Records
---
Amino acid sequence: MSDISMITFNNVEKYYGDFHALKKINLDIKKGEKVVLIGPSGSGKSTLIRTINGLEEINDGQLLVDGYDLASDKTDINKIRKNVGMVFQHFNLYDNKSTLENIMLAPRIVLKRPENENHKIAMELLDKVGLADKAANMPNELSGGQKQRVAIARSLAMQPKALLFDEPTSALDPEMIGDVLDVMKDIAQDSDMTMLVVTHEMNFAKQVSDRVIFMADGEVLEDSKTEEFFKNPKTKRAQQFLSQVEHH
Amino acid sequence: MITIAGLFTFDNFRYLFIGLMYTLSVSMISTIFSFIIGSIFGIIVYEKIPYFSKFVSISVDIIRNLPLLLIIFFVYFALPKIGIHFSIFWSSVVAFTFFEATMISEIVRSGINAVDIGQFEGARANGMNNIQTMIFVVLPQAYKKMIPPLVSQFISLVKDTSLATGIVLPELMYRGQIIYGQNSNYMVPVFVILAIIYFLVNFGLSRLSKIIERKMA
């Protein structure tokens, strides 16, 4: 972890019509930091993470990602997306492409990576997520857990500076969750990539993250070191939330 | 005694066959052009580019709601008055192309709409720009969904070419009329023959689309 900021929110506001989805968000995430974002559903976690790569636009305030101002007209959003990967709840693999092609497509057309090298990197990544034997399969031939591991490999193939995870295990059958979390743990331990993970997996948060951000009703209520958060949650909302999820 | 033996001559069949070739060539050329133009219109409308998309979508709505015969007459009779001349053949192609393009643009727009939003987001989050997302991820999936409505649109195009009789394009329908014009006893059998030919061509097309659909599934 370094002292240089990767993602900075300054008084960010987001509305959907009359609904105030993000309220005065202030956050500073450093390069290489592993951060987990938790909170009850509807608290704005997904909205927040989706503003970082411009899938949602902010209405007010300032959002800096890797030094670029997202609200500025001069910023080329594609440049940011090249460096900030995202793993979705519903995988979003390209249904018309094989597993291998899913991984190779963006590096080929966005990074213009030479075909040999592209293939080699893609196969290494498939191997890393334990799916080298599924290279030729189409997404509809994979289980949810396999799809998500391919989606992670696809994001990694772009060699991003930051990787966002939007509830990566929420749509999975229970027996598939472990495999995906293991892959994520490996990445967290091996790389100096910034990771921001929206999740309900408290054990994952405890084992992997440096820091926990707790959100409710569109606000950041707590932002503290992981250990501290789980030992001494400061707000009533966080205490309630933890007692509820930990009974499961 | 009504005799129709004189109808079934080699010359008459050759005459109809050339008509069929006109029908098919106007259909095919218009299909290719209207597919390209219709796709571009559909994508423009989908992309909601300020003013431009609105302009295209209003133009599409206007043309779509006009009778095809009016458009054919407009291209052949009215455009020359403002200095734009096309032959009968190319007037037909221009009229059919624009009319079909407006229909196809709607099919393309709704085909793109039918692609899951996650496919766009996956590609955008993966670093692809709008155009790359369209070309490599969205359109291949959208066209697959569009095969049935596109084919039925092309079948109606083949049938609609008979309207070009109105500007004396020597296509199948027109030539049928010429033949029974010589002897009114030929009228019923000529209509039967025309019906069989149109049916075979269009039924063949719809079978073909089923095969393509199955191959791509």
---
Amino acid sequence: MSLTLLNVIVAVVIAIAFAAANAAYLVWAERRGAARIQRRPGPNINGPFGLLQPPIDGIKLMTKQLMIPGGADKILFMVAPVLAMAPAIMSFVTIPFSENIVARNMDIGVLMIFAFASMGAMAILLAGWGSRNKYSVMASVRAVSQNVSYEIPMLITAITVIMVNGSMDLKAINLAQAGGFWHWNIFPSLQSPLMPVSFIIFFICSLAETNRAPFDLGEAESELVAGFHTEYGSMGFGLFFMAEYANIVIGASLTTLLFLGGWGCPFGLFPGVWWFLLKIYLLIATFIWIRWTFPRTTIYGLLNLSWKILIPISLFNLLLTAGFMKVF
Amino acid sequence: MGGYFSDIFYGGKSLLVGLSITFREFFKPTVTVQYPYQTIKMSARFRGHIELLADDTGSPKCVACGMCQRACPSSCISLDSVSVDIEVDGKVKKKKVLSRYDLNFTTCSLCGQCVENCNFGAIDFSKEYNLASTRKEDFHFDLLDRLKRLEEKKA
């Protein structure tokens, strides 16, 4: 496969467009979903069902002046939002939407996505540090400690899946799960009876990694004004928001690819990109549902959950899987 | 160690209960109204600012006795009257007629002493709640003028 410059540009443009469209309309879905759960109508004035609300919000953000607070580190302050958005877009490059729709399939796709996901924590750290605001710094410290603690169980569960499928290639992992839901990694296979638990751990970790409620301690409004993006206005704030939603899409895609059979149909019929999109949007709906159900945890509760529950259980699962694979 | 697993079990169970509650709420009808387009009817005992009531002929019931003015603990009511000659049964009589009724709503505490003290049932609480302004002059109401406008609208 030869990569021409045109191929690269088309892939990047599609990735950015997909991320931006998702960010815009997931905000709409989030606001409508929250409203339904709280028994109000939500945004419904602009356009049918309020569907013109996201572009109007975007125009509003773009027309605002970019303010840099006095005493802030200008370079870090300007770099942080871009650094939040860029890895999120990069990760789309290696996500296979179906057997043929993938910008660049890599042998180490899982590793690459995890590497870029870790850079998101870096962006939050720089944003908090560069803002010269004590609330931002506190939020950054929280967000980084959270990302460090949740990356461990997430990676351990990913390793379990990689061990079972014997590959880090997302396409190969999905081809191994093809042909009906009983082949999916979420269901207990001969190699590992604890796979559903792995799935739940991975899902909780992807909630925490994307800084979603109930784990959004990096932007705890009730304690830290707005967390790490307190000092950001206009499109700086907009980029952080887009990055958050792009990360949610990546988290849902990765969960789908690793556990739910990717683009495969549950009954082995018409595998294709539509099944993949259906699965990720169902997962994202669950993300939204969870956000508007649970109150925010404390930072201690959050770290305890990771170190005392998720890490021991995922390690036990890893050892059990290794044992089963050796025996059978 | 037993506590460890029961904590996980009961914690997880309570999370599922919470999720099931929000799932059910999601499909229930909305309970809010679309405010600028729809408004709710104020209940009978809602206390807005006071308003003058009209008799059958459309003029105020008020006889300008001034009991409300005296009863008001925050001195927010001020009124004036003029005496006019009217003919009753062929005789010319003098009658006090309300000429001005001002309410300073900035100091009103909505205690309702004025309504309680009125012997003629001439004032009552209005159902007005769209009261927002950036100038305090907007809360000095000319209630006589308000009544006149309401009666004109009715006619």
---
Amino acid sequence: MKNIIPELFILLSSFSLLIAGVFFKNFNKIINYIIVILLAALIFVIYFNFTTSVTLFGNSYTIDPLSNFMKMLVLISVLFTMLISNSYLERLNIAKFEYPIILLLSTLGMFVMISANNLIVFYLGLELQSLCLYVLAAINTKSLKSSEAGLKYFVLGSLSSGLLLYGCSLVYGFTGSVDYSVIAKVAMEQSGALKFGLVFILCGIAFKISAVPFHMWAPDVYEGSPTSVTTFFAMAPKVAAIAALIKFLNVPYANFINEWRPIIIVLSIASMFLGAVAAIGQSNLKRLMAYSSIGHVGFILAGLAIATPQSLSAVLVYIVIYVFMNIGVFACIMSLNRNGVYFENISDLSGLSKHHPLIAICLTILTFSLAGIPPLAGFFAKFYIFLAIIQQKIYYLAVVGLLSAVIAAFYYLRIIKVIYFDAAKESYDKNSSYGLKFSLIVSTVIILFYFIDPSSLNIIVENITKNIK
Amino acid sequence: MSFPILSFLTFFPLVGVIFILLRRGSDEVVERSSKNISVLVSVINFIVSLFLWSKFDTVNSNFQFVEETQWIKNFVSYKMGIDGISIFLVLLTTFISPLCIFAAINSLKKRIKEFLITILIMQTFMIGVFCALDLFLFFLFFEGGLIPMFLIIGIWGGERRVYSALKFFLYTFLGSIFMLIAIIAIYWNMNTLDLVKLMGLKIPENLQYWMWFGFFISLAVKLPMWPFHTWLPDAHVEAPTPGSVILAAILLKISGYGFIRFSLGLFPIASHYFANFVFVLSIIAIIYASLVALMQTDMKKLIAYSSVAHMGYVTIGIFSFTKQGIDGAIFQMISHGLISSSLFLCVGVLYDRVHSRLIEDYSGIVNIMPKFALVFVFSSLANIGLPGTSGFVGEFLTLIGTFKVNYIVSILAATGVILSAAYSLWLCKRVVFGEFKVNYQGEKLLDLDVTEIFILFMLMILTIVFGVYPNLILDSISSSVDLVVKNMRVIK
């Protein structure tokens, strides 16, 4: 009981907030603050029980350092999303009290997904978070694009869930169990048939992390959804899905590494490359971020494909840095408003350097970091991945990765070009939201000064990954 | 533990940046104090580096002033240190940076505060590159320098600045990823990235070849060597004058340094194997770039191509593996740093007044600007390698060193001297001499002002001092070069 306090806490609080929301008027004003405090408290709760390692509910739910780490990361993403998007939601008049509650429920789904040790539990978690995400994408009911994004996401998401469920059923059919450890045992003896299930499940997860060729939804949904929701999409669901993927590949399918490694490598190469090339032609910042996140997922998958303790540590470090870079960039995007209108084209960034030097500098640092230029954190993230790849002597993967990093640098540089080199446009509203400024500065400082002490994160992460297998 | 003087040199400019950022007040006040702070910081840095030189032990061929702390656990240490090869490059950086800051304050019109911040950050990266004794640390400084240079070209550059900045950045970035792969491969094969330890260990021969190549591509782009040089003229032409100076005087030297330190130091077998390949590329660079320089109509482009040619001597000297050759290469780097700076500053002086870099727009400057003409002609002559200037010593030593190894290379390289005389003198003839005619829209064609005289005469004096008394440099570098040469001879 003690070990699932975070999950219970989220569940109960979202229900009680829902009820409270019905009875109190103007509840949406304070609900955000309540939830921010609640999430911050939860991060500490998990932090203090970080090293617990137990399985619950008949071996179907595990709490271990890996899951705790990923849960904290999800909580951080949600927390910052809330902080950033407060004023945005109010300005767009979508600050309904349901919004943060759906966010919370989705977080709960991610928690379940991260901790799942059983295909059914995993699927339940996945569906809970996905359903919430569909609603979130369409939450701006006045915008046609938002509804389109929601619908698109829903249709394609259900398809992928169907594939995933089909894969689960195949696995169940061949092994007679949905339990990860039982599957692992059966996988030692027989090999052939289990591959089918593996492929379908991988397709389903690849959709959730928008790996190429299952990425089609991402640019449209990123663009159509309200920016606050896009921020959330870019971080939390990916963290959760990657956590689940790490576990799925390394626990039940640990023996199948030769089967799934080529699949993951293909996904990875395709994502890195397409993420880099397709982003060049984009003019919308949110679409650009969609392709950028596809590219980053490619790097993460490259680390997953190697599946050594080093590479998994690299993946975890990468995700942490990825989350903070995204927090910062979306905070910048959300500060581009003038008289209640939000701008999201790359060309709208011109003039930032003149009128808003602080935002311009932060965005520049974050963009260079996204491009992987030292000494910023993004470089370290990529560097650890390449370190792990070259250790296994998979040189072609490293070369493709580095080349796509160079191609990607081009479109990141274009952002900086618009900020600094182009003629200035009129200024944006001075942003008074403290949450936004706070998130922007915190994330930039973390990205900029990560190089001073990279080891402490490495130590935490290494302790986690050495126990995965 | 003694005072970490190298870390101080490296990171002190950043302290200046912080002070500038903390200044509040009206724009004018902030601008003035940012000028003061940056001048102060860079001058202090120069004085500290002179102090460093005075404490430098010329007999000792090992690394000195070594600082070491663990940085990334079990993986990378923060290790700094200098030897005879790097000390003058550090001094060059600390000497050129304040001059650039003076030049920027004098000539730059817009966003002066940001420019000074970028220059100071740049200074940190450049000093760091020469002091780093860990491959990872070196790469960090090497690559990190791209960011400020990209911004310098892109924000303060000329008309085609966006194109040039992107080209500069992507070209160098693409080159350096090969170095990154090589560094990672070294780590997995040797289990350390510590340069001192790596020099003691022998990297297996079969690995040396392609690791050498990884480093080579990256350094050759940065040098720039012949087929990889196309970014340089663009970057030079579009960069503002102080940016061009930094680019020519210091950034190009990083590769020369890298060749001595890494190609020769870590991969001696591969260096022998590829020496002729480097000779061929360098000869092409010298002759081709000189010929191209002859045909330029833009002064900055002409000097840029002349830089490519002069860096050819550096690579020839290094890959001759003789003491004279490497001495000459280092000397040539220092001297080119001084001479090309002064040439770029001269062009900057003209550009500030007339807003044109085209040679055809000028004629007979000497009639109006005698002091300028003196400096310009002097720098051109130094660029040719007139005896008595530092340019002569560098070229002469590299040619001697190469002659011992391969006289054909030496002869072909010597033609570059003639060609450089041709384009430099022709440039002087067209711009400085003849009948006065200037195609300009500016107010009045004034001669050099006090700041410009100060900057240019500083450079001129040093050029003469090093030319007349080269031992000032050669004595200090000798023992470290001996070590490199001995190392190479053992392998052969």
